[in-house]
Amino acid sequence: MKVRILGCSGGIGGRHLRTTSILVDNDILIDVGTGVGDLTIAELAQIDHVFITHSHLDHLACLPFMIDTVGDMRNRPLIVHATEATLEIIRAHVFNWAIWPDFSVIPTAEKPFMQYSAISVGEAVELDGRKVVPLPANHTVPAVGYHLDSGDGSLVFTGDTGPCPELWKQVNAIRNLRYLIIECAFSDREKQLAVASLHLCPSMLLEELTNLQRDAEVFITHLKPGQIELTMQEIEDCIGEFRPGMLQNNQVFEI
Question: What's this model's pTM, rounded to 2 decimal places?
Answer without folding.
Answer: 0.97
